Amino acid sequence: MTGAPAAGPTSAEPTRTERAINGVLLPGFESGGSEGVGSGGSGSKSSGHDSARVPGWLADAARAGLAGVVYFARNTPDVATTAALSAALHAISPDLVIAVDEEGGDVSRLEAINGSSLPGAAALGALSSAAVSLDAGRALGRLLAATGIDLLLGPVLDVVSEPDNPVIGVRAFGTTPGDVARHGIAFARGLRSAGVGVCGKHFPGHGATTVDSHVGLPVVDEPLDDVRARDLVPFARALCPEVDGPGSSTRGPATRDRSRLDAVMTAHVLFPAVGPAPASLEPAATRLLRELGHDGPIITDALDMGALRGLTGSVGEAAVRAVEAGADLLCLGLDPALYTEAYDALDRAVSAGRLTVERLEESGTRTRALVAAVRDRRAVAGAVTGVDAAREALAELSDLGASIADAVVQVRGARLVPLAPDARPDVVDLRTRLDHAAGRTARHVQTAIAAAWPRARLLAESDDGQFGPDESGLAVFIARLSRYGVSADLDRTGTRRGADFPVGTPAAPVVAQAVPRTEAHPVPSTAPRPEPLVVITREPVPGSAERARLEKLWAVRPDLVVVHTGLPGPVDDWFGTLSGGGPGVVVACGTGRANAAAAVERLRRPDQQS
């Protein structure tokens, strides 16, 4: 949509109230279209990059004091378009904060189409040295600065204490407070050294949840002392570090400043020990964060997420309650109607006395201080913004990401037999849950396998196209494996060819490549060898639907190979408990492009790793 919203600031010269309300809003938007402002300047209708056009309603809001915007993948199809769009926005409002979720690994906006060049937090956390996290943050920061982005909505400072966490997982640096703090602080330092602002998330912590806040309200019903000892540690250390970290040679205020977070994002997670509302709407959570030393903006997670929908009844009410709780910037989704709803609700709250203009202006002051700090930091770093600089930074990030992934992605469990260059592997995605944070289902592993083995056969997805095969499709696949030992009726696109076997065709014996001969799985020496079977997993927790799928396939093909895209820590527990000792597992630590490429190399040469 490119037209102006039905409501919002309307006067030619914005009033104090209009500017104050706009000063707490951080909407997303649909760029491109036939109307809007291009990178050629105010009033330009064409920029050379269709997606770089700023919709008219957003341009009006920016001139009326809008705090900033959040980029989504639709805004950033390539770095050239991103740089042009940022230039167009900053031409309208130089103080506009341009923010983005560019965590690397599973969550990428700038590289959403082909997958992230950076393996992601779990991969960085698997390395013993936090110096690599510093380098990764600096390389990513250069790309963000070159594309005109001011604020990264990261790093993720959640401690993944729940293996069945549906939304954090490999987005976190680790499972212990110390590891998360060490790598998170180093990553933040790297970003800041490149001239970018950082926003730690998701306070007080999203790592102990079993509900995805995109779809429901998670509850962490644990004593506050436990939350302090586990979840708050990375935030406390990032805000007020007591020791030097990678990249620091001296102690004192300068070192402390390089370690601090510019902003903190609150989570839509209910901590009864903190207060009766989700942290993003809970004044006690804000007080707790301020007590830890944070004096910058507090940013909410997106207010249109499912966790708040049933609780507040509307995005507008959620916006008012978030500001009442102490939030400074309110994240909104792509639809301009969300901006309109939040703006109008805040306007009514000011008129009714629930909020004051002065309270809103306090938030605006914090945001302006962040902008000034980022502008100064960018000048000190000598960061260059533009298409050429962005392409150069992306190439450097790709090189670094490939080396990190090669060092981290490894084979565990049973020994793998290399996949031959002319192999026709069957590829089955066993993942059953959509990754809402990534914005779509990541298929980078399948893409990488298909590129390496052009005759690979991908089992058809379910009708919604979001997961792997539905139960019916998987049942047909397993039935054919059980009878013939091979899948034979699938082509490389996943379309069933309908090939039939004669009624009397004997079942092809299964040859175990990845497990030793056992009584449960005999290995006939003269049996024909079936094509490799590669399965993709994320959370095969015992008792889960994904685990049940894995067990069914394992029963008929004990030579299957796993590419595991979820947490690396529980791999032995999740796969080693299968009969016969379990399969060989390529531990990818995520689904980014760098992770997928390294996983393919392990399938090709499982015994070779730098």
UniProtKB/TrEMBL annotation:
Residues 64-239, 260-366 form the Glycoside hydrolase family 3 N-terminal domain. Residues 32-52 are annotated as: Disordered. GO terms for biological process: carbohydrate metabolic process; peptidoglycan turnover. The keyword Hydrolase applies. It holds the Pfam family Glyco_hydro_3. InterPro entries: GH (IPR017853), Glyco_hydro_3_N (IPR001764), Glyco_hydro_3_N_sf (IPR036962), NagZ_Beta-hexosaminidase (IPR050226). Signal peptide: none annotated. GO terms for molecular function: beta-N-acetylhexosaminidase activity. Keywords: Glycosidase, Hydrolase. It comes from the Bacteria. The keyword Protease does not apply. Residues 32-43 have a biased composition (Gly residues). Belongs to the glycosyl hydrolase 3 family. PANTHER family: BETA-HEXOSAMINIDASE-RELATED (PTHR30480), GLYCOSIDE HYDROLASE FAMILY 3 DOMAIN PROTEIN (PTHR30480:SF16). This is Beta-glucosidase.
